[in-house]
Amino acid sequence: MGVSYVPQTNTMFPPVEIVQIPPTRIRTVMRDPLAFLLRSAQQHGSFIQYPLKVATVYNISHPAVIQRVLQTNSKNYSKNTVQYNTLAQITGEGLLTSDGRSWFTHRRLMQPAFHRQRLEEYATIVGEATEAMLVRWQAQAQAGCPIDIDAEMMQLALEIVGKTLFNLDLRQEAPEITHAVLELLEYVVYRATNPLVLPPTLPTPRNRRFTAARRMLDEMILSTIAARRASGEDPGDMLSMLLLARDEETGEGLSDAEIRDEMVTLLIAGHETVASALTWSWYLLSQHVAVRQRLEEEVQQVLNGRFPTIADLEKLPYARQIFDETLRLYPPAWLITRRALEDDPIGDHTIPAGSILILSPYVTHRNPAFWPNPLGFDPQRFTPEAALQRPRYAYIPFGGGPRLCIGDRFALMEAPLIMTAVAQRFRLNLLPGHPVIMDPLVTLRPRHGILMSLESMEMKRKFHYSSNGS
Ligand code: HEM
After folding, report:
1. Given 6, 129, 130, 200, which is the most exposed site by the fewest CB atoms within 10 A?
2. What pLDDT sits at residue 139?
3. Which residues does ligand 1 sit against, CB inside 6 Å?
4. Mean pLDDT, rounded, for 240-260
């Protein structure tokens, strides 16, 4: 069958729409920025300017403009924004929040940890951690206990990132660490959306919780660095790479503080995102039983009871399409921001230096010009043929250009492996009456977790075979 080809780059910039926000409305906007951004795009289009008193702000959800900002003219855009500056209170000068030379040298240094050969090694760890979780679930299924799939995915993803990148066994500490991370991220959102709050040095209950959580994380990480330095071991993981790195010109290594910042960045960026996306996948599958049925058939056909490996992934395209479609509807990193360093002419409009640009994958992925029936859950959008019909920058769950997520291929290996391994053993059903409410914090989180009951697929298959007389 012939496939008609639509170019991947759309160089036609849309006209800008200027929208005034009365100062009295700012508070309402800050209370639920995601709802505001989406509604605004639905009313005013995909390239909107809000001339605010503090700065000129843009809401951009058009692929051509996004491509300009993230890729073709990315050098003109920095991460000096409220979003990244408040996040830096936790991650310091880590890869996600830094800019310029420091970002570039660290990125080059860390990139090899995400090469294909390394991913193959990580896949084994993903398999082992998932298998251990499934054994635990078996007992819970037998006892008829529901699980909070959000907490389960958070712990699993944290364990995986700790073990793969830092050779850390976080099985015992995982609940405590995920709790501390959530506490820190909640604080970041609070500060970012309430600019007039009391200074962080005052001992308010919230400030105290923040300080305690940061101390706990720092102690864990700094003691790991000290132990590794003392042992002199080199297991070839990300921590070794950071410890052994030397500046080409000065010959200097990274300080403990620099290594701490990168480790915190990777732990946070590498687990909350994957876990949130998987949680939403389980929720969507529980609401779309035909899709779930097709996933179960694919898993049965390809694996036939065997545990999935990285080599199986190309034979499990439907699982990947489900994950891609989940990232469209619930992109964990729902907000990407930049500051313009110099004037940037885009079509008939010039973005003035100093402007703040908001690129929301959530809003972009609902742009009806590129996504028919944008609210529908349809993994068929991600067959290779269908994907060719869209401009590249209509889909940005991992961002794009030089600041593209460093862990994208890691996540796209890890999540389908976990999804297929779980789907083979269990069917997850949403507990009737459990409220599912999306909370746009640093990532898109389910406000009350997601409680699900476990239905054992093994029991189902046994029953199916015996009732067929086989
Ligand atoms: C589904 C999972 C994930 C999603 C949706 C996601 C999303 C993103 C996005 C949108 C960005 C770009 C932010 C921007 O341009 O401002 C980013 C950057 C980043 N991500 Fe991910 N991410 C995921 C998984 C991971 C994993 C598994 C890791 C590491 C183990 C990771 C580490 C990072 C880092 C370090 C950066 C900063 C890269 C740079 O600026 O050079 N992420 N991620």
Report:
1. 6
2. 93
3. 95-96, 107, 161, 265-266, 269-270, 273-274, 277, 332-333, 336, 397-399, 403, 405-407, 410-411
4. 89
